[in-house]
């Protein structure tokens, strides 16, 4: 019964993240093929995160207001398909930025909404969130490997065909999806103040920003860095396959390791591994070594994401779950993506990929320090409250 009730949701996660692998893994290479410079690529890649800052809270609020995740997802995926058809016809940087903003306005909230739905379904069924979320990673891994091989064979210019294929599958799957059940009246705009005025939540978002910027920079420039070191499109696909396969394993086994320590401890641990990972990427100039070290992606992103998502879920009122989750997405994939895209493109153009990864290692260490201080002070504050 559990398997049947979650199958459409797992298929949605699989198909959406399979399509998302194209944007993360191969869009920078496609833009490079179009003749754009590193700075121009950075501007286009930053369009998505910029759009998501507005799109994530907007669609999350509508989801809570109308008490549905399913139909908001349907609208967003439909907009994704229409936007993608137009976006991949554009050639100039101005048209790519303008159409890209519209395209990303619909596409960027899908991951957050589907994860929010997965978290709620996991809570209802009393199963691990990771056991559902892992199917997104499986889709990403499978697509990154197969699409990398196909694009290496036929050319990066055909990137839009597999993207539209997986997007269409996601749209079809939505119809069979079980929606959330909400027993409260629809939220009002004033209710969102409960999130904005939540100081521990806002401080947490601010401090993890340093870690998430390094993550999103790697998302944007890993492919270009591998190519800079002499790799190929298929090697980029293999790199993402290894990384996301490990991510899926971490999600799948979350129920076994996740409850043993405080969630913040896992975030600090992931941040430290992030720093070590980026130093290793900067140290080696062989693209094959970068591919091998991609196994660390699961330990970094997988652990960090499960812990952070669980932590903010505890801090957010239940009736504002979609809004809060989408705010997290806006910061993780929005603000971090803008800074990472613009900063990364400029640094690669002026210096090198090696220097970029050293900067990312420094950012991660700053984030670890701030989150550790945050954990110490919030723990002390909690103990002092319980002592009275």
Condensed summary:
83% of the residues lie in helices and 0% in strands. It is found in: Cell inner membrane.
Question: Could you describe the 3D structure shown?
Answer:
This protein has a single domain, classed as Growth Hormone, Chain: A. It contains 16 helices and no strands. It is mostly helical and about 400 residues long. The radius of gyration is 20 Å and the shape is globular. The longest helix is centred in the C-terminal third of the chain and has 34 residues, at about 355-385. The model has no long low-confidence stretch (mean pLDDT about 85). The chain has helices at about 1-35, 40-65, 70-85, 95-105, 110-125, 130-155, 160-175, 195, 200-230, 235-250, 255, 265-285, 285-290, 295-315, 320-350, 355-385. The termini are far apart. Helix 1 (about 1-35) packs parallel to helix 6 (about 130-155), helix 1 packs antiparallel against helix 10 (about 235-250) and helix 12 (about 265-285) runs antiparallel to helix 16 (about 355-385).
Strands, helices and their partners?
Layout: H1 2-33, H2 38-66, H3 70-87, H4 93-107, H5 109-125, H6 129-154, H7 160-174, H8 193-196, H9 199-228, H10 233-252, H11 254-257, H12 263-283, H13 287-292, H14 296-315, H15 321-350, H16 353-386
Helix pairs in contact: 1-5, 1-6, 1-7, 1-9, 1-10, 2-4, 2-15, 3-4, 3-5, 3-7, 5-6, 5-15, 6-10, 9-15, 9-16, 10-14, 12-14, 12-16
Membrane topology: Multi-pass membrane protein
Subcellular location: Cell inner membrane
Protein name: MFS transporter
């Amino acid at each position: 019964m559990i398997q049947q009730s979650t199958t459409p949701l797992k298929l949605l996660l699989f198909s959406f993240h399979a399509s998302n692998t194209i944007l993360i893994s191969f869009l920078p290479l496609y833009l490079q093929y179009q003749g754009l410079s590193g700075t121009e690529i950075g501007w286009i890649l930053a369009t998505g995160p910029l759009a998501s800052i507005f799109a994530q809270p907007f669609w999350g609020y509508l989801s809570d207001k109308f008490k549905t995740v399913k139909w908001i997802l349907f609208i967003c995926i439909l907009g994704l398909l229409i936007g993608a058809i137009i976006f991949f016809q554009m050639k100039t940087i101005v048209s790519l930025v303008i159409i890209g903003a519209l395209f990303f306005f619909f596409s960027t909230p899908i991951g957050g909404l589907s994860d929010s739905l997965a978290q709620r379904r996991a809570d209802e069924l009393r199963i691990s969130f990771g056991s559902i979320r892992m199917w997104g990673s499986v889709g990403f891994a499978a697509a990154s490997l197969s699409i990398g091989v196909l694009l290496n064979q036929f050319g990066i210019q055909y990137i839009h065909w597999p993207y539209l294929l997986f997007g269409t599958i996601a749209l079809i799957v939505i119809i069979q999806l079980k929606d959330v059940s909400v027993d409260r009246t629809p939220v009002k705009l004033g209710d969102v103040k409960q999130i904005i005025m939540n100081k521990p939540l806002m401080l947490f978002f601010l401090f993890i920003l340093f870690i998430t910027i390094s993550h999103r920079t790697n998302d944007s420039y890993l492919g270009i860095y591998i190519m800079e070191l002499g790799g190929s499109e298929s090697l980029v696909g293999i790199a993402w396959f290894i990384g996301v396969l490990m991510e899926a394993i971490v999600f799948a086994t979350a129920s076994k390791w996740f409850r043993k320590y405080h969630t913040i401890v896992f975030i600090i641990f992931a941040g430290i591994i992030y720093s070590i990972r980026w130093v290793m990427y900067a140290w080696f100039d062989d693209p094959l070594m970068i591919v091998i070290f991609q196994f660390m992606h699961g330990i970094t992103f997988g652990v960090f994401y499960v812990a952070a998502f669980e932590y903010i879920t505890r801090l957010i009122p239940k009736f504002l779950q979609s809004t809060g989750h989408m705010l997290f997405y806006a910061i993780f994939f929005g603000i971090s993506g803008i800074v990472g895209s613009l900063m990364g493109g400029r640094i690669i153009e002026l210096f090198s990929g090696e220097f970029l990864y050293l900067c990312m290692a420094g950012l991660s260490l700053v984030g670890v320090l701030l989150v550790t201080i945050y954990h110490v002070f919030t723990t002390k504050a909690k103990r002092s409250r319980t002592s009275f």
